[in-house]
């Protein structure tokens, strides 16, 4: 690949756009969350700031900005600040490897709609996600407050245990796709060849685990109000608090995107091939981006829908589900996948 | 009839301790069912009343918004005895008493009157105990359907005499109506 000025500009534009979209999505997820919550409870939700409350996220942000920066009596002031920073940056970093579309043809160049296509994209995502635990852990520890610490410990143990199941559920998918690059996984799912139809069990496990990874209900024990006040962000105020909340929504957005890309065909929609060939590369791909966006929005809605439906798990139930159900289940899933992939060899071995 | 089978509400159910089947223990079916119940609510009619643009329907016996009454001659009834403030469970009422001057006889019925009379509408719970305590029939909760108007300033919720005392023309009209009957 040639690295020239235009390439750098092109990538910078893609990165800035992805960053902006992630931020805006996270912002408006807070609005959507409140709206969805309200509607599911027969209320109307925020509707004063702007039309339909659309300026509410700005108002919330402004409010958080103007709040007092509070520092608890902690010996770890530095870590206290580092916590939310880690949470925020890891939540934003995952979006780097996601293919938002195939390519656009502008100014006589093919612009790949992805910040970077690395061949270990999935591993990268897992790595970054697990660093996200540090954000919570450090924040909770540095707060010098037992509720924060307990919230952080819960979050950490929950994330670590669900990462195992998540990784194992991914292995089955990887055995099928044979690649870890999200771009290639997207390409393999052309048309309606979505992975969810081949790996429904893997999808289910992945979905449950991503609820746990993003600390959303029914797995939001880390910030369980009835027991732990605010969990790991009890001592946080002002924009540091805002960062934690924002990180939660940003990681919800990225995990919704990852689910869409891995299991629901990413930017593919039925008839995309035909559109690209007959109508034009750009229109076909813009539609693809819209399709991905629609899928992502659906999953974000799904996150909220589940949040306002299912009550929180008890801690032992959570661990039971993680270690004694999901992990064995994903191992079984790996074995089944292996048998299906090697069915010809196995048949040959037994001499059929 | 034995005691076990009596059901006053008609909705009595026996508690069952039966083992859950495999599908029930998966909870997935129950979760999906629950999701559809909440989804139905998404399209329900919303119960929110958009105050202050919309106002709730009040029942005919509704009483709110105090008024300090005047008598038939348009004089204020209140004598600043403080019994309303004493009886108020929310401690919403404050007042300051003053002595009536000789030339104020047409304004106040008693020799002592309230020069300041304030009700904090943020504290008031509209229980009506002030009305019950008053020996001079001075304070009443009215049938006015107007709720305390929303505002961004706390001071706007402390109603002074300017907003509590019955307007003079209303008092005169009442007196005329009474005479006519
Ligand atoms: S209505 Fe009740 S709460 Fe309100 S001022 Fe009268 S006594 Fe106090
Ligand atoms: S309103 Fe009635 S109870 Fe209250 S101070 Fe006046 S006379 Fe006394």
TrEMBL record, chain A:
<dbReference type="Pfam" id="PF00146">
    <property type="entry name" value="NADHdh"/>
</dbReference>
<feature type="transmembrane region" description="Helical">
    <location>
        <begin position="243"/>
        <end position="267"/>
    </location>
</feature>
<feature type="transmembrane region" description="Helical">
    <location>
        <begin position="325"/>
        <end position="342"/>
    </location>
</feature>
<feature type="transmembrane region" description="Helical">
    <location>
        <begin position="121"/>
        <end position="142"/>
    </location>
</feature>
<keyword id="KW-0520">NAD</keyword>
<dbReference type="InterPro" id="IPR018086">
    <property type="entry name" value="NADH_UbQ_OxRdtase_su1_CS"/>
</dbReference>
<keyword id="KW-0874">Quinone</keyword>
<keyword id="KW-0830">Ubiquinone</keyword>
<protein>
    <recommendedName>
        <fullName>NADH-quinone oxidoreductase subunit H</fullName>
        <ecNumber>7.1.1.-</ecNumber>
    </recommendedName>
</protein>
<keyword id="KW-1133">Transmembrane helix</keyword>
<keyword id="KW-0472">Membrane</keyword>
<keyword id="KW-1003">Cell membrane</keyword>
<dbReference type="GO" id="GO:0016491">
    <property type="term" value="F:oxidoreductase activity"/>
</dbReference>
<comment type="function">
    <text>NDH-1 shuttles electrons from NADH, via FMN and iron-sulfur (Fe-S) centers, to quinones in the respiratory chain. The immediate electron acceptor for the enzyme in this species is believed to be ubiquinone. Couples the redox reaction to proton translocation (for every two electrons transferred, four hydrogen ions are translocated across the cytoplasmic membrane), and thus conserves the redox energy in a proton gradient. This subunit may bind ubiquinone.</text>
</comment>
<keyword id="KW-1278">Translocase</keyword>
<feature type="transmembrane region" description="Helical">
    <location>
        <begin position="12"/>
        <end position="31"/>
    </location>
</feature>
<comment type="subunit">
    <text>NDH-1 is composed of 14 different subunits. Subunits NuoA, H, J, K, L, M, N constitute the membrane sector of the complex.</text>
</comment>
<comment type="similarity">
    <text>Belongs to the complex I subunit 1 family.</text>
</comment>
<feature type="transmembrane region" description="Helical">
    <location>
        <begin position="194"/>
        <end position="213"/>
    </location>
</feature>
<feature type="transmembrane region" description="Helical">
    <location>
        <begin position="279"/>
        <end position="305"/>
    </location>
</feature>
<keyword id="KW-0560">Oxidoreductase</keyword>
<feature type="transmembrane region" description="Helical">
    <location>
        <begin position="162"/>
        <end position="182"/>
    </location>
</feature>
Automatic annotation (TrEMBL), chain B:
<dbReference type="Pfam" id="PF12838">
    <property type="entry name" value="Fer4_7"/>
</dbReference>
<keyword id="KW-0830">Ubiquinone</keyword>
<feature type="domain" description="4Fe-4S ferredoxin-type">
    <location>
        <begin position="115"/>
        <end position="144"/>
    </location>
</feature>
<keyword id="KW-0479">Metal-binding</keyword>
<keyword id="KW-0520">NAD</keyword>
<feature type="binding site">
    <location>
        <position position="127"/>
    </location>
    <ligand>
        <name>[4Fe-4S] cluster 2</name>
    </ligand>
</feature>
<comment type="similarity">
    <text>Belongs to the complex I 23 kDa subunit family.</text>
</comment>
<feature type="binding site">
    <location>
        <position position="88"/>
    </location>
    <ligand>
        <name>[4Fe-4S] cluster 2</name>
    </ligand>
</feature>
<protein>
    <recommendedName>
        <fullName>NADH-quinone oxidoreductase subunit I</fullName>
        <ecNumber>7.1.1.-</ecNumber>
    </recommendedName>
</protein>
<dbReference type="InterPro" id="IPR010226">
    <property type="entry name" value="NADH_quinone_OxRdtase_chainI"/>
</dbReference>
<feature type="binding site">
    <location>
        <position position="134"/>
    </location>
    <ligand>
        <name>[4Fe-4S] cluster 1</name>
    </ligand>
</feature>
<comment type="function">
    <text>NDH-1 shuttles electrons from NADH, via FMN and iron-sulfur (Fe-S) centers, to quinones in the respiratory chain. The immediate electron acceptor for the enzyme in this species is believed to be ubiquinone. Couples the redox reaction to proton translocation (for every two electrons transferred, four hydrogen ions are translocated across the cytoplasmic membrane), and thus conserves the redox energy in a proton gradient.</text>
</comment>
<comment type="subunit">
    <text>NDH-1 is composed of 14 different subunits. Subunits NuoA, H, J, K, L, M, N constitute the membrane sector of the complex.</text>
</comment>
<feature type="domain" description="4Fe-4S ferredoxin-type">
    <location>
        <begin position="69"/>
        <end position="98"/>
    </location>
</feature>
<feature type="binding site">
    <location>
        <position position="81"/>
    </location>
    <ligand>
        <name>[4Fe-4S] cluster 1</name>
    </ligand>
</feature>
<keyword id="KW-0411">Iron-sulfur</keyword>
<dbReference type="InterPro" id="IPR017896">
    <property type="entry name" value="4Fe4S_Fe-S-bd"/>
</dbReference>
<feature type="binding site">
    <location>
        <position position="130"/>
    </location>
    <ligand>
        <name>[4Fe-4S] cluster 2</name>
    </ligand>
</feature>
<keyword id="KW-0874">Quinone</keyword>
<keyword id="KW-1278">Translocase</keyword>
<feature type="binding site">
    <location>
        <position position="124"/>
    </location>
    <ligand>
        <name>[4Fe-4S] cluster 2</name>
    </ligand>
</feature>
<keyword id="KW-0004">4Fe-4S</keyword>
């Amino acid at each position: 690949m040639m690295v020239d000025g235009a390439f750098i500009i092109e990538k910078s534009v893609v990165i800035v756009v992805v960053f902006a979209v992630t931020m805006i999505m996270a912002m408006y997820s807070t609005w959507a969350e409140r709206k969805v919550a309200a509607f599911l409870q027969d209320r109307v939700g925020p509707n004063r700031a702007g039309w339909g409350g659309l300026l509410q996220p700005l108002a919330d942000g402004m409010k958080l900005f103007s709040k007092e920066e509070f520092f608890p009596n902690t010996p770890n002031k530095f870590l206290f600040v580092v916590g939310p920073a880690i949470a925020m940056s890891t939540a934003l970093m995952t979006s780097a490897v996601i293919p938002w579309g195939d390519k656009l043809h502008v100014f006589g160049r093919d612009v790949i709609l992805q910040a970077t296509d690395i061949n270990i994209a999935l591993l990268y995502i897992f790595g970054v996600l697990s660093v996200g635990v540090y954000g919570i852990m450090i924040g909770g520890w540095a707060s010098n407050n037992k509720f924060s610490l307990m919230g952080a410990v819960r979050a950490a143990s929950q994330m670590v245990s669900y990462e195992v199941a998540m990784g194992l559920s991914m292995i089955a998918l990887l055995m099928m796709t044979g690649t870890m690059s999200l771009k290639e996984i997207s390409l393999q799912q052309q048309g309606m060849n979505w992975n969810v139809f081949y790996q429904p069990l893997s999808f289910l496990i992945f979905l449950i685990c991503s609820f746990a990874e993003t600390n959303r209900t029914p797995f939001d024990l880390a910030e369980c109000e009835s027991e732990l006040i605010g969990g790991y962000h009890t001592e946080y105020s002002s924009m540091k608090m805002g960062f934690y909340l924002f990180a939660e929504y940003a990681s919800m957005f990225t995990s919704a995107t990852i689910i869409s890309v891995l299991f629901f065909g990413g930017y593919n929609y039925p008839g995309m091939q035909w559109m690209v060939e007959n109508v034009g590369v750009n229109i076909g791909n813009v539609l693809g981006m819209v399709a991905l966006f629609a899928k992502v929005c659906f999953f974000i809605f799904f996150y909220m829908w589940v949040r306002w439906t299912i009550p929180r798990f008890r801690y032992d139930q959570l661990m039971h589900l993680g270690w004694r159900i999901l992990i064995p289940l994903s191992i079984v899933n790996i074995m089944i996948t292996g048998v299906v992939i090697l069915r010809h060899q196995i048949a040959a071995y037994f001499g059929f | 009839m034995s005691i076990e089978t009596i059901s006053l509400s008609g909705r009595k159910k026996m508690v069952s301790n039966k083992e859950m089947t495999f599908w029930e223990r998966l909870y997935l079916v129950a979760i999906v069912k629950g999701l559809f119940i909440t989804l139905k609510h998404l399209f329900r009619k919303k119960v929110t009343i958009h105050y202050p643009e919309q106002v709730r329907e009040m029942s005919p016996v509704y009483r709110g918004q105090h008024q300090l009454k005047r008598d038939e001659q348009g004089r204020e009834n209140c004598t600043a005895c403080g019994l309303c403030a004493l009886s108020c469970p929310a401690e919403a009422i404050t007042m300051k008493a003053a002595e009536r001057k000789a030339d104020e006889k047409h304004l106040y019925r008693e020799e002592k009157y309230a020069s300041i009379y304030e009700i904090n509408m943020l504290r008031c719970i509209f229980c009506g105990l002030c009305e019950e305590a008053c020996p001079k029939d001075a304070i009443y909760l009215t049938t006015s359907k107007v709720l305390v108007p929303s505002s961004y300033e706390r001071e706007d919720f402390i109603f002074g005499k300017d907003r509590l005392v019955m307007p003079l023309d209303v008092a005169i009209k009442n007196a005329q109506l009474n005479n006519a009957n």
